[in-house]
Amino acid sequence: MNINQLIAFLKTNMIAAFGAIGLIGSLIYTFTMSAPTALPSNQLTIPTSSPFTHNIAAKGLIEANTQNINIGSFVSGVVAQVFVIEGDKVKKGDPLFSLDQRTEAAQLALHEKDLESAQHSVNVTKASLAEAEDQYERVKKLRTGVMSQEEVKKKEFALQKTQAQLALENSKLESAQHQVSLSRIALEKLTVKTPIDGLVLKVRVRPGEYINQTIQTAAPVIVGNPYPLHVRAQIDENDAWRFDAKAKATASLRSYQNATFHLIFIRLEPYAQPKQQLSGESRELIDTRTIDVIYKVDGDFPGLLIGQQVDVFIEAQQE
User: Fold this and answer.
1) Residue 140: φ, ψ to 5°
2) Within 10 A of 267 (CB to CB), how many other CB atoms are there?
3) Angle CA(194)–CA(197)–CA(201) in degrees, nearest 5?
4) What per-residue confidence (pLDDT) applies to 297?
5) pLDDT tens figures, 173-201
6) Does 292 lie in the same domain as 234?
7) Same domain, yes or no: 291 and 237
8) Considering the entire predicted model, what is its pTM?
9) Which of 171, 204, 222 is at the close of a domain?
10) Same domain, 27 and 159
11) Which domain holds residue 91?
C-alpha cells in the first residue's frame, strides 16, 4: 500500500484513525506518567517495645501519690458556690464548694439566743444563791435567843433550793452550749474542704445543682497530690510469680516509645482483683485477675497526666 492509498484510507476511516491514536496514547501514559509519586511516611509514633530480654508487660495508669481522692458531701442540698476549678492548687482545709446554708445559719442564730438566755438564768440564780447564803449565815449567828429554830430551817432550805436551782440552770446552759456546737458543726459540714495539699483534678458540680448525699454516682470533686506522680501497674496473675520488687521497670506513653521514663518501686497491693472490663457491658464475664503494683515516676516528666494509660515493662525471670 503506497502513501496515496494510505491517505485515502484514512480519509474514509477517520473514526478508526482517531481511536487508534487514543489507544496508543493511553498505553504510553499508563506505563510512563501515571505511576504516583511516593508519599512521605505518615507514621508519627512508634509502638512501644520492651527494653528487657525477659519482661512482664502490664497496663499502667497514672495517678496521684495520694491516690485520686473522690471528695463527697456530708449532707444533701443545693450547691450555692463552687470555689475551685480544674488545675487549682489547694492547701489542706481550703474550701472546694458549699451548699445552701440559710436554714442551718438561722438554726445556729436561734441556738445562740437560747445560749445567751441560759447564761442570763445562771447569772440570776448565782445572785439568788449569794443572797440565800448571806441570809443563812446571818441567821446562824443570831439564832441563839433571837431566831427560832423554824426560821433557821427556812433559811437553810431556801439555800438548798437555790443551790439546786443553780445546778439545773447550769445543766440547761451546758445543753445550750452543746446545741450551739452541733449547729456550728452542721453549718460547717455545708462547706466541703480538701483533706490534703494537692491539685484539683476534676470538678463535676455547678451552682444550683442538687447533691444527694445517699446516692452519689460520681464524686463532685476529685483532688490528689501529683508531686511526684505514681503509676499503678496491673500485672496478670499468671505473671505474678515472675515479679521481683527489686527488678528494673520502665513505662512509655502508649504507642510512643520515645516518651519513656524509669519507675521506682513503692509497694505491692497484696490483693488480686478481677481485671477491669474492656467492653463495659454488664454481661461480660472476665475470669482473669490482676495484682496492682505501685511505682513512682523517677524525675519530672511534664507530658504525663493523671488518669493517662501507659505501657509498663518490668524486668523478669527467664520463662
Assistant:
1) -60, -35
2) 11
3) 70
4) 92
5) 999 999 999 999 999 999 999 999 999 99
6) yes
7) yes
8) 0.69
9) 222
10) no
11) 69-100+191-222
